[in-house]
Amino acid sequence: MNLKQLSLELGLSQTTVSRALNGFPEVSEATRNRVQLAADRHQYRPSTRAKGLATGKALAIGHVIPVSTKHETMNPIFGDFIAGAGETYSRNGYEMTLSIVDDQNEDDIYRGLKARRSVDGVVVHAPRMHDPRIALLNEIGLPFVVHGRASGVTAPYSWVDVNNRRAFNRAADLLIDLGHRRIGLINGLEVMDFAHRRRNGYMDTLTANGIAADPSLMWSGEMTEDFGYQSTREMLALDNPPTAVMVSSLILALGVRRAIEECGLTMGRDVSVITHDDALSYFRNGGDVPIFTATRSSVRDAGRRLAEMLLADIANPFPQPQNELLEAELMVGQSTGPAPNL
Amino acid sequence: MNLKQLSLELGLSQTTVSRALNGFPEVSEATRNRVQLAADRHQYRPSTRAKGLATGKALAIGHVIPVSTKHETMNPIFGDFIAGAGETYSRNGYEMTLSIVDDQNEDDIYRGLKARRSVDGVVVHAPRMHDPRIALLNEIGLPFVVHGRASGVTAPYSWVDVNNRRAFNRAADLLIDLGHRRIGLINGLEVMDFAHRRRNGYMDTLTANGIAADPSLMWSGEMTEDFGYQSTREMLALDNPPTAVMVSSLILALGVRRAIEECGLTMGRDVSVITHDDALSYFRNGGDVPIFTATRSSVRDAGRRLAEMLLADIANPFPQPQNELLEAELMVGQSTGPAPNL
DNA sequence: GCGCCTTACAAAAGCGCTTTGGATACCTTT
DNA sequence: AAAGGTATCCAAAGCGCTTTTGTAAGGCGC
Hints:
Two copies of one chain form a homodimer.
Chain A lengths: L2 H8 L3 H8 L7 H13 L6 H8 L4 E8 L10 H14 L3 E8 L3 H10 L5 E4 L7 H9 L3 E4 L11 E4 L1 H14 L5 E5 L5 H16 L9 E3 L4 H12 L7 E4 L2 H13 L9 E6 L15 E4 L2 H17 L7 E4 L2 E3 L11
Parallel strand pairs in A: 1-2, 1-3, 3-4, 4-5, 5-11, 6-7, 6-8, 8-9, 9-10
Antiparallel strand pairs in A: 10-12
Helix pairs in contact in A: 1-2, 5-12, 6-7, 8-9, 10-11
The structure holds a DNA duplex (30 and 30 nucleotides).
C-alpha cells in the first residue's frame, strides 16, 4: 500500500492524505479521521526512501564502529551503547545504520556516508587522543557527537563522556585511605582517550599523596581477561608487589582476580581491586554486595543521552556544541579492604 | 555533487553518466573513462535514497536485536556477529540497519520494516523454540535468514547454525573417556533453541553411556558470570558433587572457575570444565594452551556466512531455502583432566 | 451583489536516481 | 544506393513521497 493507492481508495488527492497523516492544519478533522482510519486499516507506512528523498533528510543516524585490523577486536561496550541509543532513535522515527570499519580507511567511510547522503549524523566511537576524525567531520559538514572526548583537539564539538579522571581520583583516594601505598594500574591502550584520562586521575592522586609513580606498576594494553591476568602475575612477582590494583574494566578485573587467587592470595584481603564498571547488561557486578568495588557508569545511559543530543543538534539549524559529563558512582564491594601490614 | 551536476559538467546526459558508472555496455570506453575520472575527482557517490527509490530495492539489511524487557540483557555475541556480517554487506554495497526491540512488540517491527520498505531482508537473531517470527516473516514476505534454528517449526527456511548437539556430544564423550561419570550442565535459558540442542547433545551421550541424567546437575539460566558461579557453588555443595561440568559460554565458565577455586579445588584436576567458546574478539580463550577446554566456533564467521546467504537469497528471484551447519572444533585446554579417583 | 478572507482540497513540480524507448551517425551488405 | 546493423548517446518517464502553488466554495461585511 502506498500513498497513491491510499488516496485513490479514499477519493482524495495524495496531498490531502499526506497532510492529514502528518498533522497539517489545513485538513478538516472529519477527513483526517477518515484518512487515519484507512491508513491504520491498511497498515500504511510511508516509504523511508521516498520520504527521505522528498525531505532531503536521511532519517537515519550512522554509527561507525572501528575494529582494529590487528586484533580484530571489537569493544564489548558497544552492544549496550547501541541498545541505549537505539531506543531514542526509534522513538523519534530515526533508523540506525552501522558501518563496521577497520581503522585503516575510516576517512572513506565518513566521506562516503556524507556523499551518499545516507545519514543525517554520526556518532564517533572510541575517540583517541588527537583524534583526526573530529576535524574531518567538521570539514565535510556531517553532524556528529563523540562518545568520549579527544584530548589535544581544540576545535569545539559535542560529546558525552564519563568523568574518567574524577572516577580514578576517587578510586585512588579510597585505596589510599585504606592505607595502600603500592597501587598498580591496569589500563586500556593509552592511545585511547579514556585510558589517558584514567591514568591522569590515578597519577594525580598518587602524587598529591606523596606517592611516587612506579612504571613497573603501570600497565596498558587490550582489555582482555588474559591481559588482566598476565599483568597481575607480573606485578605480584615483583620484589615489592602492589597491595592494590586499579583496573579499567570488569573483564580485565576477572583476569586480575584469577591471577591473585592463583598466587594463593585473597582478593580484598591480600590485594585490593577497584575496577571501572560500564554496567554491561550481561556482566552484572555481583549481587547484594558487589563482587568488585567499582566506579560505575552505565554505558547504556550514555547511549541514550548521546542520541538525544545528536538528534537535537540535527533538528537545530544553528547548533551549539553541547557537552555532558557523567559522574561515575563509587560502589564499595568485596574486593577492597585495608592494606595488609607487612 | 549529484548526477545532474556531474552530467552537466561533462556535457553528457544523466543516462550516459549513470550507465558509464554502472558498467553498462552501451558506453564507449573513452567516455566511460572520462566519466569515471570526473566522478572520482568530485568523489561522486549516488544517493542511496534515490537509488533505492529508483530500483525498488532498499540496499539495506535489517538486524532486529531482541532485548529482554525483564533483564535488559543483550546477548554479548551480538557485536562480533554484526562485525562479521557487516563486512559482507559493505563489500556488496549494502547498508546494515539495526532495530533494538524489546520482546513485546517484535511483530510490529518486522511489519514496519516491510511496510516502510526500508530493508531488503532481515536476519533473525536468537531463535527460540517454536519461534513465531519465522511464520510471520514468511507471511509478510520479507526475505530472512535465521542465525540458529527453531525446533518445532516445520516450514522450510534458511539458516546458519552451529552443530550444537554434536558439539556437546563430543564434549561429553571426552569427559566420559577421561573417566567422569558425574557431569554437570550449565546452560542458557532453554527456551532458546541453541540451549535446547546442547542439552539434547549432553543427554544423548550420557544415556548412551549408561549414565542416568540427574536433574540436580542440570542448570539453565541467563548466561552471566554470576549464574555460572552460583550454580557451580550449589552443585559442589551436593553430597555427590560432579567431577566435571559442561558450560554454554565462556562468561559462565569464568564464574564456574571462580566457584571451583573458592571451594579450594583446582580446575582441571578436581573438577574438569568444558565450555562452548564463540571466539569473541574481546574474550580470547587463553594463549598457547587454551585456559578452557572448549567447543569452539567463531560467531564472526557465522555472521559472514549468513550475510552471504541472505544476499544470495535476495538476488535470486526464486530462492530455495539454504542451510549451513557449522561444526565446532573441540580444543583441549587446561581445564580438563582424568576424573579424580574417590 | 461585490470584494475579501477563510477553509478544504487538488495539480503539479521536484527530490536524485534508473530505465525505457528512441534518435543519430556510421558501417556493412547486397 | 537502399536496406539493415551496430555503436553511442539522449529525452523523458517513473520510483513514492513532500511541498509549492493554485482553486473552488462558503461566509462575511457593506
